[in-house]
Structure to design on (582 residues):
């Protein structure tokens, strides 16, 4: 029942008042202030004049910062591609499992996602660091080999741990670890809606599994792929904790630069401009998704 | 199980099975080792030297950590109550009424879900220093106000989606029957709508609670030296070193959030999982 608001104005006001006021006062106003600051400049330590300047945005596309923005996108793109490659077979396995197995598999993929982001990142630090589990295992194997070669009179050089933490590799590894469930779920949702008789027809008509995958499954699952890519890409570009804890000095991403402007460098207008660049990109990504899904709906109609 | 595999039984093909197993190991091995080593005697945290609960004892004796945990639970409890109230009002509003700018309001309500956390964090930082400076000298728990307000702002949209999903299955004839029998708006709300919404309210509450308990980035920008939350405290410990005490504290938080989310999932029949994963966009 879509009742007109005029019919019960008092109820409408009681229901609508608190949420709208809250959203306005404690969400839209804060964002609006930042948006205003992105066109302002520092006058003194505490005073910011909003004078309509585009200087902060110009500053943001200087080579140093443009490089960081591009690097954020590059990391996010690699992460998204890896999640897609790793996640697609998982989504297929879930889709074609029996109802009961399906529920368990979904739970298995989702469970790590419910644990705190900070804790998951910390868990990776313990795995990747020089004294971590991987290097410990590698060192053990290396020393074993060294014993064997020592028998032949040529012991190996002492084990050097692989540097896996505080570099770009660790950031991408961490982002994939954190974002993978975001990719699997939309893929699964799209694959689950797929008409299976089309796949069977393709297989019956002599196409192999790979051909069927490339020419039937992927085109039909495209809306799921697009939304999976977006829900992986958007949070990855703006990731703060992962590059902060797992990255090295050269793997800082846009969110780390924003944080620094607000907490240490004290250049709020510039930080605000960077935040809003991130917001504009998010809106563009969402608009792309809306256009893609609308285009599909029209073609289907 | 003995019947031959059909052409689409991908789960019964070994490459898919191996792939799935590898992904599960990738996702779980770090977390399971983290939890296992919280019981390890060795402080170096890499070789198993025997079982101990010392690190849990150390965590419970760390008064800063306990205070941070108390702050986190308080913030989560208050922001859950407010988010459920606001979320329920929002859901009822959107479910019942047709009004101008409805699409705009729906879009604005979706914003807290899609806006990058870092942007919301800095917006809250600026808001609570420039527009509404939150006094740091207030008595506990009022000094947590800025954090609580930010948490409500990012959780109540999620709660509204869960409750709106539940309302979609409401039979409008019940409401009409109540009205015909002479019930007023308030009576219908309390005796007809609320009982129907209850599973959604509970699921929304648990979702808001875990969202609040888990949040790091937004809290990082709104907390002060006296208003540390559990994730913020763990963050400062992690920055220094990897110690079994952090493992013990993390294990406790993992157990709490996983248990709460499992209950929420059971109550909402899966709606929570899909929303958390961004399907609510």
């Amino acid at each position: 029942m879509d009742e007109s608001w005029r019919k019960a104005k008092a109820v409408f006001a009681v229901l609508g008042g608190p949420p709208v006021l809250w959203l306005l006062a404690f969400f839209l106003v804060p964002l609006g202030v930042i948006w205003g600051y992105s066109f302002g400049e520092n006058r003194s330590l505490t005073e910011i004049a909003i004078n309509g300047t585009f200087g902060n945005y110009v500053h943001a596309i200087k080579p140093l910062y443009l490089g960081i923005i591009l690097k954020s996108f590059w990391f996010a793109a690699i992460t998204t591609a890896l999640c897609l490659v790793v996640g697609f077979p998982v989504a297929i396995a879930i889709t074609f499992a029996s109802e009961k197995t399906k529920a368990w598999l979904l739970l298995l993929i989702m469970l790590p996602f419910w644990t705190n982001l900070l804790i998951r990142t910390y868990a990776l630090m313990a795995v990747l660091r020089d004294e971590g589990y991987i290097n410990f295992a590698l060192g053990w194997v290396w020393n074993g080999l060294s014993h064997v070669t020592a028998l032949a009179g040529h012991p190996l050089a002492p084990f050097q741990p692989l540097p896996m933490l505080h570099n770009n590799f660790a950031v991408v590894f961490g982002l994939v670890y954190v974002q993978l469930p975001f990719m699997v779920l939309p893929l699964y949702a799209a694959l689950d809606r797929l008409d299976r008789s089309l796949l069977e027809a393709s297989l019956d008509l002599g196409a192999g599994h790979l051909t069927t995958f490339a020419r039937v499954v992927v085109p039909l699952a495209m809306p799921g792929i697009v939304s999976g890519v977006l829900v992986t890409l958007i949070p990855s570009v703006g990731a703060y904790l992962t590059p902060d804890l797992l990255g090295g000095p050269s793997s800082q991403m846009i969110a780390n630069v924003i944080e620094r402007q607000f907490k240490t460098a004290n250049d709020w207008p510039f930080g605000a401009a960077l935040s809003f660049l991130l917001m504009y990109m998010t809106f563009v990504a969402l608009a792309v998704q809306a256009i893609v899904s609308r285009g599909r709906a029209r073609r289907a109609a | 199980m003995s019947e031959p595999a059909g052409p689409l039984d991908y789960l019964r093909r070994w490459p898919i099975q191996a792939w799935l197993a590898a992904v599960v190991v990738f996702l779980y091995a770090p977390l399971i080792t983290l939890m296992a080593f919280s019981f390890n005697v060795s402080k170096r945290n890499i070789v198993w030297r025997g079982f101990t609960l010392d690190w849990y004892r150390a965590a419970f004796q760390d008064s800063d950590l306990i205070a941070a945990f108390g702050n986190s639970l308080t913030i989560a409890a208050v922001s859950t109550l407010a988010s459920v109230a606001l979320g329920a009002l929002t859901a009822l509003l959107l479910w019942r009424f047709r009004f101008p700018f409805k699409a705009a309001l729906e879009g604005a309500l979706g914003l807290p879900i899609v806006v990058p956390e870092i942007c919301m964090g800095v917006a809250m930082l600026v808001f609570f220093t420039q527009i509404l400076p939150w006094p740091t000298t207030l008595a506990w728990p009022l000094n947590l106000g800025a954090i609580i307000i930010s948490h409500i702002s990012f959780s109540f949209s999620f709660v509204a989606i869960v409750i709106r999903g539940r309302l979609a299955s409401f039979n409008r004839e019940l409401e009409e029957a109540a009205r015909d029998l002479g019930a007023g708006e308030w009576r219908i709300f309390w005796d007809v709508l609320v009982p129907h919404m209850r599973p959604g309210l509970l699921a929304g509450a648990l979702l808001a609670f875990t969202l609040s308990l888990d949040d790091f980035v937004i809290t990082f920008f709104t907390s002060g030296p006296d208003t540390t939350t559990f994730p913020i405290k763990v963050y400062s410990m992690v920055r220094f070193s990897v110690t079994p005490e952090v493992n013990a504290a993390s294990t406790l938080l993992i157990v709490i959030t996983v248990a709460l989310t499992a209950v929420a999932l059971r109550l909402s029949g899966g709606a929570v999982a899909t929303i958390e994963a961004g399907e609510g966009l």
About this structure: The domain at 60-129+164-300 of chain A is CATH 1.10.3720.10 (MetI-like fold). Chain A has 13 helices and three strands.
